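pasting for ref
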Amino acid sequence: MAVTERLARACSRHRRATIVAWIAVMVLAAVALVLALGSLTTNGHPTNDPESQRAAAAIDRAFPPDPHHAVSDFIDVRSSRYTVTSAAFRSFVARLVAATRATRVVSNVELRYRAGAGGTVSADRHALLVPILIPTSDDAGAVENVVARGDADPSFAVAITGAATKDYDVNKLSQHDLKSGELRFGIPAALVVLLLVFGTVVAGVVPLLMAIISIVVALGLVALLSQAFNLSVFIINMLTGMGLALGIDYSLFVVSRYREERAAGHRQADAIGGTGATASRSVLVSGTAFVVAMCGMMIVPNNVMRSLALGAILVGIVSVVAALTLLPALLGLLGDRVNAWRIPLVGRASLETSNPEGRFWRAVVSAVLRRPVISLVTAVALFVLAAIPVLGLRVGSNGVSTLPDRFAARHGFVALQRDFPHATANPVRIVVAGDAASTGAQRGLRRLQAALARDSRFEGGGAIARAPGGDVAQLVVPVRGDPDGRAAVTAVRDLRRRVIPAAFGATGASVLVGGETAETADYLTSVSSPAPYVFLFVLGMTFVLLTVVFRSVVVAATAVVLNLLSVGAAYGLLVLVFQHGVGAGLLGFHHADTIEAWVPLFLFSVLFGLSMDYQVFLLSRIRERYDASGDTRDAVTHGVAATARIITGAALIIVAVFLGFAMGDLIMFQQMGFGVAVALLLDATLIRSVVLPSAMKLLGERNWYFPRWLDWLPRLEADGPPPAAPRLTPP
């Protein structure tokens, strides 16, 4: 008897104790969420001590920050009616500054009327710049409220932007997208699909309940881990989305198999045991494949990528454990009441036929298998055509300029670029450490300053400051445009690669470039450089796992290649829509110059993990039929037709969940949600119904090739032994 079968039978027999134990775990998780959830960051930073971090450390040691002069954000006050010298303008600014200080969250407010280059008065003398320091992004909301009240005056336009404001707005937008997209759209859409698949309310609600339980427990684990690790705020969005997708999918397969076992006349205990021996084992294999794929992202030395991977891994593990333990207990408690509250029309058909082979999909597969060469070549050509735009893929970081117009940080950024293009709270900081007092280093700094003064990408030549003792000096120069944008990052990379070496020559000075833009450049490098290793890890581990599960190197290789096809097509369509703007306006997406750096790598890992669900369940049914009949064509036809209803429903649920991401306003989640949704649609339709059947038909007996010298590998079948009577439905 399989371990999963014994576990299912034990949890079903002791169902009340199992359910009580899970309730206790949920209560503890809720307590952890309330008491232990630490501060989550919106910043993405490398964890491999890059140049920008070394520069920041050197600057902090030599130039300790002065809270009385430090600046994080800027308030822009403009009046088309008054000039900055008028009494009305100055009176309004005085009231605004007093209200800002009254919030008690601002550490510093600099109110100076200084004209000229680099001053606080605009060239047309109708705008004033007020630098402020907001210590933490959580406090920015209070200042934004003050600015909004000031902006309500028809004689003045008031805006705010900066590091704290941007982080606050990104966090707020992330929470908004979570509520409006995933919770208001993803969950209802998933419930509709479940009700249509099962035909009864109870059977449809159970997978959704399992997903919610898995999410709560995983969030409790995140709360505990946030006490020791610096985690990104986006772990919440990712954990919720993946929890809905995995929790529902795993439960969908288990519940459908249980109903099939009962429809075949098995006693309740035996039906649960049979489900544990088949569907539960497949869930274990699928969950393992998903976790392995997500572990690939832990290679990336970046807190955002590791946070996203951690959230997905945690909720994946919890979803598998819940499906193997809590779900059998619930089925033991519900019994045949899982079929209660039938839905008119679909409910009667679903219960009486017990998920039969889909006639539509059988017809499609039969047509494909009659002309396998034409079908395979045509489908693969479509995938390659969709993937071609990936050749123009540009990765980057979409900063404040990509926020929706309604957010204060974006509105303030536009105002700042108009009135004070030189102003930035995050200039480029070039530091010479250790030998700044040498003649060569001093000359190098002056040559660098002169070169930057001629460079249109920077605002003037900047200012040189020397620390007491003269061992450290820094050149501070503003960079034009969005400090996280592609142009600014390119300028900093060119500064490091060409401009600084040319200025310092053979002086031997140790020169480091820091500041927000340098941090963004290092972040992009930290995400893109490990990509080949992540790809190799995911591909290799997936191939090994599938080889062990299906005892066939050909089946494993085929599955990997098919996943690459869907991922490549998703990449190409992502570039086409977001970079080139094809259909972006129609779909409600932002048009951007770049794809967020973490998205392609994340898509690769997630899609390999999620598509394994379908591959494992489909290929296990094909293998089961082949072992019984020995006919590859019959096995493929039966496997696709028998799994069509459940796999299509599972794919639509995941698509709905990730479309919830895409419907939000945060561009990085729009890109990620669109990419996952498109890839899974292609995987669940063209890959499953055309490419895989035609490829397996052409390969014939070679599908099951397994060299004898690999017999030492452990046996880990995705499904249990075939049942005594023929099964026409998926596990």
